[in-house]
Design brief:
6 helices, five-stranded mixed β-sheet, alpha/beta
Length: 158
Amino acid sequence: MAQSIQVGDKAPDFTLPAQSGDQVRLQDRLGERVVVLYFYPRDDTRGCTAEACAFRDSHEVFAEAGAEVIGISSDSVDRHAAFAGQHELPFTLLSDRGGQVRKRYGVPAVLGLLPGRVTYVIDRQGTVRHVFSSMTNIGQHVSDALETVRRLQAGQAA
């Protein structure tokens, strides 16, 4: 496992397939907007569905604040497409089969088995401005990320 990415670190670039089948590169999403990148264990589980729906319900607020939300798990593109469709998710879900990007970010596993739940806020220059890790405090992933995005939009250091 790589060293965990911390506030102030450059976010590792990556390219992964989205639920649409399109390849998404992190660097291509930065510059114009802040990226809220959240790693989650698995589609269609109670906690992950609650988290995805919380990000969905705040999607307009994130967009108005100049941020794009991207979710990453090791689920397949097809499973992401079904999950996004079922819950009307308006943001990108990326398929990290084999967990290579998760490892590059140093996202921990719970009990060495279950992939962890970590949210990163990455500014337009590609610097990580916020990291929050919690398997159970779903709401704080969204609220802390939104607070950080708003501070960045206001031109303040996060």
